[in-house]
Write a structure and sequence with these properties.
Layout lengths: L16 H12 L8 H17 L6 H9 L2 H22 L4 H15 L2 H4 L10
The structure holds magnesium ion.
Magnesium ion (MG) binds next to helix 2 and helix 4.
C-alpha cells in the first residue's frame, strides 16, 4: 500500500512572509554585517536562556500561575526571539528548516518506534 503524499512546503529561495519581513528589517538597518552564523547561534542560545529564566526556581504550580499572568507575554516574546534567530540562521546557511525538521522526524521515528517508546521518556539507547 502506498503512503499518502505529504504536502510539499516552499523550498529555499521562496522565503515565507515572516522571513521576508525579518530580512527586510535586517537589511533596512544594515545588520547583515553583524549576523555571522556564530553570532546568530550565540544569540539563539542567549534567547533560550532568557526563556529559561521564566521557569527558573518556580514550582509547576507557580509556572502555571506565571503563564496565566504576565509571564505568558514574556514567554511569547522569548519564543519569538528564538524563532527569529533560528529562521535567520537557517536562511543564511541555506538550510530549509521545514525540510530539515521533516528529515529529523523521520529519523526520530526510527530511533523511537512507538511499540518501544510509547509512555516512556527513556533515551533511544536505553529502549
Ligand atoms: Mg529575548
Amino acid at each position: 500500500m502506498r503512503r499518502p503524499k505529504r504536502p510539499r512546503l516552499p523550498r529555499q529561495g521562496k522565503p515565507d512572509a515572516v522571513l521576508e519581513a525579518l530580512l527586510a528589517f535586517r537589511k533596512e538597518r544594515d545588520w547583515e554585517q553583524f549576523h555571522k552564523p556564530k553570532d546568530l547561534a550565540i544569540s539563539l542560545v542567549l534567547e533560550a536562556a532568557e526563556l529559561l529564566e521564566e521557569f527558573q526556581w518556580k514550582t509547576d504550580a507557580e509556572v502555571a500561575g506565571h503563564l496565566k499572568d504576565k509571564g505568558r507575554k514574556r514567554v511569547e516574546e522569548e519564543l519569538a526571539d528564538l524563532a527569529i534567530y533560528l529562521k535567520l540562521l537557517a536562511h543564511d546557511l541555506g538550510i530549509d528548516l521545514d525540510e530539515a525538521m521533516r528529515k529529523k522526524i523521520e529519523k526520530n521515528r526510527k530511533k523511537y518506534p512507538v511499540e518501544k517508546s510509547r509512555g516512556t521518556a527513556k533515551k533511544y539507547t536505553n529502549l
